[in-house]
Inverse folding.
């Protein structure tokens, strides 16, 4: 008999290759619900069509067996680094700050992107790039980085806890790790920066107007 395919290990290799931190990021990358990933691990299965569609630059032999080169032959030519263009390749970038100006692009659907950023694995439907200022999420996200966002419509209390989200209320916008509070109807906004000037905050869920998953960040390179 041939070797049995270790499907949970295949999922782990996807996370390894794309530097995805946990099952929530893997779910966002593959475009499936977080509980789908949990079920795949538990039942030792996955949707092979989804894997083939999303992991186009991974060598399938390495992905399925762990043997050989992890890059596909087409990807071996050069490392995929972020690049900008005006030809709709990748995800749109708006030269605004999430904290101080992101509502402009949300409220003005006629505004065109400044350009597009082509950078797998963030070339996904619904993803937008914008700037982020402030030091509360350092060292994970630095002041001046650009972040990849995608709006989520699932109520925040049902989203994966401990992930980084962009939170929009009537009065402010902020990027923080989010966990449920012990106080019913509240969530905790947790900064990564351990300096005393940054502290956790609890806000009522009813204050939150929009939630964006922060898929990743990169240093501004243009």
């Amino acid at each position: 008999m041939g070797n049995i395919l270790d499907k949970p290990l295949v999922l782990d290799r996807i996370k390894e290759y794309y530097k995805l931190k946990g099952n929530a990021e893997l779910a966002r990358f593959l475009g499936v619900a977080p509980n789908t990933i949990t079920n795949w691990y538990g039942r030792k299965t996955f949707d092979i069509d989804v894997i083939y569609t999303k992991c186009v630059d991974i060598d399938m032999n390495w992905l399925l067996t762990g043997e050989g080169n992890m890059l596909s032959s087409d990807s071996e030519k050069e490392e995929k680094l972020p690049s900008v263009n005006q030809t709709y390749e990748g995800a749109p970038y708006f030269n605004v700050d999430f904290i101080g100006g992101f509502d402009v692009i949300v409220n003005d659907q006629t505004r065109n992107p400044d350009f597009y950023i082509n950078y797998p694995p963030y070339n996904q439907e619904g993803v937008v790039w914008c700037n982020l200022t402030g030091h509360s999420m350092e060292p994970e996200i630095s002041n001046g980085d650009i972040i990849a966002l995608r709006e989520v419509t699932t109520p925040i209390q049902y989203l994966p806890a401990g992930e980084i989200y962009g939170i929009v209320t009537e009065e402010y916008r902020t990027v923080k790790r989010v966990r449920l509070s012990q106080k019913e109807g509240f969530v905790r906004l947790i900064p990564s920066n351990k300096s005393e000037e940054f502290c956790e905050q609890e806000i009522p869920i009813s204050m939150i107007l929009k939630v964006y998953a922060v898929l990743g960040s990169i240093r501004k390179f243009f």
Summary: The CA atoms of residues 25 and 156 lie 16 Å apart. Strands lie at 83-85, 91-97, 115-118, 127-131, 146-152, 164-169, 173-180, 186-190, 201-204, 208-218. The longest strand covers residues 208-218. The chain has six helices and ten strands.
